[in-house]
Amino acid sequence: MVVTLLDYGAGNVRSVRNALVKLGHTVENVKTPEDIVTAEKLIFPGVGSFGLVMHRLQEKGYVEPLQRRIRENKPFLGICVALQALFEGSEESPGVPGLGIIAGQVVRFPETQLSVPQIGWNGIKLQKESKLFTGYDNEKLYFVHSFHAPVCPATKDWNLALTDYGCEFVSAVEKGNVSAFQFHPEKSGKAGLKILHNFLTSEKNASSVVVNTVRQNSKKTQIAKRIIACLDVRSNDAGDLVVTKGDQYDVRSDGLVRNLGKPVELARRYYEEGADEITFLNITGFRDFPMQDQPMIEVLEKTSENVFVPLTIGGGIREFTASDGTSYTSLDVASAYFRSGADKVSIGSDAVYAVLEYLQTGKKTGKSSIEQISQVYGAQAVVISVDPRRIYVKDPVDTGHVVIETATPGPGGEKYCWYQCTVKGGREGSDLDVVQLVKTCQLLGAGEILLNCIDKDGTNSGFDLELIAMVKNNVSIPVIASSGAGKAAHFVDAFQHTAADAALAAGIFHREEVTIKEVKEAVQAAGVEIR
Ligand code: 1PR
Q: How many Å separate Cα 120 from the centre of its chain?
């Protein structure tokens, strides 16, 4: 079948396109407003903020045709912000009118104990029978958003599924042939592909009236803790792009860069084994300019053809002037990655520079990579990769930094330490501590923290729980625990002793010491919610 995609050039719609191709369909883009009305099946993947989406639709003259298509009950599927766009407006972009199909306003998640944005795999409670969920077996689906459609009388006829995250919100709507999901089916693994398949193959509903038989699961849904596989990528001495792995960031063994496999193949293996997310870090990105480093773009393009869980890319997200004088903003670099299949970008060194600049003036410039990318793609697309190392001190006073008393004393028996932020893969230190960094990054618009630890990296000795707990206490955005996992029990520790939202590992997975399945079994056996 020919599926029409409403791609207005805002971000990663490659994943939706790839999912449709994988399901055997041909994808065409909307080229004129008329295409919106005449398309047989229309998919609208919303990317970016509510205001940005509506602005682009207005600009291209798509608002009226969309309203008409929906009024005429022609097959329509909206994803993420596209569900929100069906409403009259959103707290995210006050004063910007939505499509106005459903009465009411989209609102921000309440400040609770839970991290905002909601990033991860959550359940749904189906409210009525729907062909879209034929064969669906209560699997968790992937969500990433800070704003949601509240359950209210105006949504009653539309509610297809509800989800709990601090409050109950509308996670899917359907009326006749018009449907929209807050979750991302194209990023929800095999369960998501099945739902997309159902949308594409279901016959048209003759009328917009639906049978309102409440079906199943009214049990509260819970977000799962995520298990992430990380691939540190760089060129080896023969010039091949390889997955490598360091010990405390030293990736050479006997003078040569360790080679643990090919990025695209390894990523696919981890997807098949049940990884909730895959992260690629171009670890020499501070040196090589990524826009000229085509292999990383290619890695993303190829990976996203077969991997239907979220992909993060880090390394070299910063502004750059090439030798021919062409200037690239960090937004240009990030956009190239989003277009190639990334869902999130991870900023390392440049976040440290941005925070140092902010702390000097106390003023946002709007020009940092964090601000620029967050503004266009939303906070949830901006991860900060932190590379801290412990600085031990005998006395906690007068360091000018947030110091903790540690259960692991330093080499001279020091009982206190602070965490110094580094740049260029730990090659240079800074006078910034990890708490200053993460708090300021959140203020500048970051949506998630990937918390490495140089002291722990590659040691197999377990995560630095003191570091993770401290960072978690200082931000409300999700935190990914990273560095040091050596066995499944270490993941259990991370989730039982800290409030980490996800845990990431590299070495143990690459060396096949522990599988993702074993990690998940151990975590689940400990009573932690898992996918
Ligand atoms: O500074 O924006 O160009 O980004 C560079 C990125 O590359 C940063 O995210 C930085 O963490 C990463 N990086 C730079 N050098 C290295 C290195 O290893 N020499 N890798 C490096 C950092 C850390 C983790 C690792 C975990 C888990 N890798 O991501 O995968 O520690 O490892 P484990 O489970 O084996 O212990 P920029």
A: 8
Greatest distance between any 2 Cα atoms in the chain: 77
2-201 and 226-385+428-525, same CATH topology: no
* CA gap 66, 69 in Å, rounded: 5
Pairing, β 125-126 against β 159-165 = antiparallel
Each residue of 193-238: pLDDT tens digit?
A: 999 999 999 876 544 444 434 445 679 999 999 999 999 999 999 9
Every domain of the chain and the residues it spans = 2-201, 226-385+428-525
The CATH superfamily label for domain 2-201 reads: Class I glutamine amidotransferase (GATase) domain (3.40.50.880)
Is-catalytic flag, 184? Answer: yes
Return d(Cα 525, Cα 519) in angstroms, integer: 10
Is the CB of residue 227 below 6 angstroms from any atom belonging to ligand 1?
no
Residue 97 C-alpha to ligand 1 middle, in angstroms? 42
96 Cα to the center of ligand 1, angstroms = 40
Cα 283 to ligand 1 centroid, rounded to whole Å: 6
Which CATH architecture describes the domain 226-385+428-525? Alpha-Beta Barrel (3.20)
Give SS3 for 25.
coil
Residues paired with 250 in a beta bridge: 247
Would you say the CB of residue 347 lies under 6 angstroms from ligand 1? yes
pTM for the complete prediction? 0.96
In a mutational test of the pocket of ligand 1, which residue from 234, 382, 387 has the highest number of ligand atoms less than 8 Å from its CB? 387
Express each pLDDT in 283-305 by its tens digit. 988 777 767 656 889 999 999 99
The CA distance from 134 to 423, in Å, is 49
3-state secondary structure of 191: helix
Give the pair of three-digit tokens for residue 307: 């991997």
Token pair of 497, please?
């002793």
**Contact of 149 with 87, CB cutoff 8 Å:** yes
